[in-house]
Amino acid sequence: MAIVSGMRPTGPLQLGNFLGALDNWVKLQHEDKCYFFVADWHALTTGYEDTEKMKENIRLMVIDWLSAGIDPEKSVVFRQSDLKEHAELHLLLSMITPLSWLERCPTYKDQLQQLSDRNITTYGFLGYPCLMAADILMYKPEFVPVGEDQLPHLELTREIARRFNFLYGPVFPEPQAKMTKVTLLPGLDGRKMSKSYGNTISMSGDPDEIREKVAVMITDPARARRKDPGDPEKCTVFTFHKIFSPPEALPPIVEGCKTAGIGCVDCKKQLMENMIAKMDPIYRRRQSFLAQPSLVDDILAKGAEEAREVAQRTMSQVREAMKL
Fold first, then answer.
1. Is there a single domain that holds both residue 75 and residue 122?
2. Is the whole model's pTM more than 0.85, yes or no?
3. What's the whole-number mean pLDDT along residues 102-129?
């Protein structure tokens, strides 16, 4: 069974990326044939004006993948732009996709509002669901790992596949959603973790950075003084404890918070050390990969070669079906 997923190289990954996607990818690669791609063309849909850091962002993102446990021997890791077949299929699918389908995409409307400071009223941004459909359908996966917020995108991919099959004959299966358990992390200030808010913790952070970031996390506002009792469920720090601290450590933290038996500073110190311990293997692997300059290029070249074999077969079937 084939699985397809990708990420845009927009900068260093944060812990939210790790827990929301990468952690699931690592598990999936032991169960299915996985195609994980660097979506550099997708990055251009909102970042076409400044591409100076693109190559470095790609390198660092792939290193983050490897550090998290993605194994190029088990998964096909490649760069989207290395396979021109993706561009060709995107073009052909754009010929049959009604404009209204693209305009009704929830993310299209949301991002036009959220990114109102950027000029993204472009064909590339409007048509990115077609490119996404091409990325997915190229490998004819049975399932695509998605969170609930991505379901509309996958449904559009299925609609495009159905339309193609209706017009030209059965070529593409309709990929189904493989709902993944997504661990949502708040940012340091309690809002959604986002680079635009400046409230993230880098996945590649060293112990000093982790300590620095945890130190400024907001806690329960009710604990204005050390002696004030608090509610762990209203505390960003405790949300991180539930992910990074051992299960047996949680009851004493809950009790200490509710009775003011433990102060927020001490609670944060426990979290710091538990996070450092849990992220240490990833941090050490990353340092090893950074010391190998040609590693990412070699992995992407090998992955592109393997992915191209599948992509060329698919495009041959597409051309034949369309009588091209």
1. yes
2. yes
3. 81
The answer to whether residue 192 is domain-embedded is: no
The larger pLDDT score, comparing residue 275 to residue 106, is at: 275
302: exposed, middle or buried (Cβ count in 10 Å: 0-12, 13-18, 19+): middle
Within 13 A of 193's CA, how many CA atoms are on the CB side? Answer: 23
Residue with tokens 């950074």: 290
Sheet containing 176-179: give its strands across.
75-79, 33-38, 2-7, 143-146, 176-179
> Shortest CA distance to 297 belongs to which of 7, 77, 12?
77
The domain that contains 140 carries what CATH number?
3.40.50.620
Residues 271 and 166 in one domain: no
pLDDT at position 20, please? Answer: 84
Q: CA–CA distance from 226 to each of 213, 222, 231, 260 (Å)?
A: 21, 10, 13, 7
Q: pLDDT > 70: what percent of the chain?
A: 98
Alpha carbon distance 183, 244 (integer Å):
12
Q: Which amino acid is at 258?
A: K
Best CA proximity match to 10, nearest among 79, 56, 68: 56
Q: Which domain holds residue 257?
A: 205-286
Which residue do the tokens 């109102």 mark?
Answer: 116
Task: Round to whole Å and give the CA distance between 258 and 240.
Answer: 17
pLDDT computed for residue 70 by the predictor: 97
Task: Report the alpha-carbon distance of residue 79 to residue 2 in Å, rounded.
Answer: 18
Cα end-to-end distance, the chain, whole Å: 29
Is the same domain home to 143 and 7? Answer: yes
Q: 323: phi > 0 → left, psi -120 to 50 → alpha, else beta; which?
A: left
What average pLDDT does the chain have?
A: 92
Mean pLDDT within 83-95: 98
